[in-house]
């Protein structure tokens, strides 16, 4: 079998990998649940390639992410639920419906993206899902979802916090501006201190989470995405410690041998160089 730019070749490869007896034992034993962590990991690696500006790597990582989509679709097809073509049809239908100002008739295109159109389209999609549940003999109202339950649990925690807060804000459950949130952060830190004094492990973790949640909310009001900001800080930390490592090696030492004072001095050096 030869590589190809045709998506059908990738579908053939996945089918072969999942074929009992002749396929790959590892691929055959996978389930939606076991593959899900890899799907998230590949999405992160796509974001990493973009951050680094490495387009060659981005091409490869996008391929890895596409493989995840094909993998899930293949498992669903084996269960008689849907196939890759159904996934493509679903997203093309959604994109066409949500952009009538691009794909609609002359009147729709001429009107542009009218105010409220997006919410109206989303409401239509929700009604269709309700009808689909009815057709399957399911309770159309009992879908196990509250107002915030549409925010995926599998998102990174900081991103999910942001999405939960944004959605709550749509119904008016939000701070009017950023300043009062600073008071909330200080309040949460105070509660964290109390939990630490009591040495209550469970409460410490709970209060620590409250501090993080409040910080995400504060960042949102400052138009700062917490996940992006922390990613930048992570890279800054990595770069500065790498500077410490290089300088120690140049002097015949290393991270394991150096004292904390030696590492701190080199850290401040890296900080001074804005590394």
TrEMBL record:
CDD domains the record matches: NTP-PPase_MazG_Cterm, NTP-PPase_MazG_Nterm
Enzyme class name: hydrolase
Database matches in InterPro entries: MazG-like_dom (IPR004518), NTP-PPase_MazG-like_C (IPR048011), NTP-PPase_MazG-like_N (IPR048015), NTP_PyrPHydrolase_MazG (IPR011551)
One protein family per Pfam: MazG
Residues of the signal peptide: none
GO biological process, one term: dATP catabolic process
EC number(s) given by UniProt: 3.6.1.8
GO molecular function, one term: ATP diphosphatase activity
UniProt family annotation: Belongs to the nucleoside triphosphate pyrophosphohydrolase family.
Name of the protein: Nucleoside triphosphate pyrophosphohydrolase
């Amino acid at each position: 079998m030869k590589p190809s730019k045709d998506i059908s070749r990738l579908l053939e490869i996945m089918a072969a990998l999942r074929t009992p007896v002749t396929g790959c034992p590892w691929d055959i034993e996978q389930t939606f649940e076991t593959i899900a962590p890899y799907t998230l990991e590949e999405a992160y690696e796509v974001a990493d390639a973009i951050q680094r500006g490495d387009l060659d790597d981005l091409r490869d990582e996008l391929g890895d992410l596409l493989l995840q989509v094909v993998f899930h679709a293949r498992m669903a097809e084996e269960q008689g639920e849907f196939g890759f073509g159904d996934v493509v049809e679903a997203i093309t239908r959604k994109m066409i419906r949500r952009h009538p100002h691009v794909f609609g008739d002359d009147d729709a295109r001429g009107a542009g993206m009218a105010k409220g159109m997006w919410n109206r389209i989303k409401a239509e999609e929700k009604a269709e899902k309700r009808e689909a549940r009815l057709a399957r003999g399911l309770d159309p109202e009992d879908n196990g979802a509250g107002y915030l339950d549409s925010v995926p649990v599998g998102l990174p925690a900081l991103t999910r916090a942001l999405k939960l807060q944004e959605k709550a804000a749509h119904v008016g459950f939000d701070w009017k501006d950023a300043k009062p949130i600073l008071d909330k952060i200080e309040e949460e830190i105070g509660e964290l201190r109390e939990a630490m004094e009591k040495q209550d492990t469970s409460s410490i973790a709970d209060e620590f989470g409250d501090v993080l949640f409040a910080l995400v909310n504060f960042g949102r009001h400052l138009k700062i995405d917490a996940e992006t900001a922390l990613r930048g800080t992570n890279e800054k930390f990595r770069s500065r410690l790498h500077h410490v490592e290089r300088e120690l090696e140049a002097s015949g030492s290393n991270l394991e041998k150096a004292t904390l004072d030696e590492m701190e001095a080199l850290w401040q050096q890296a900080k001074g160089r804005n590394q």
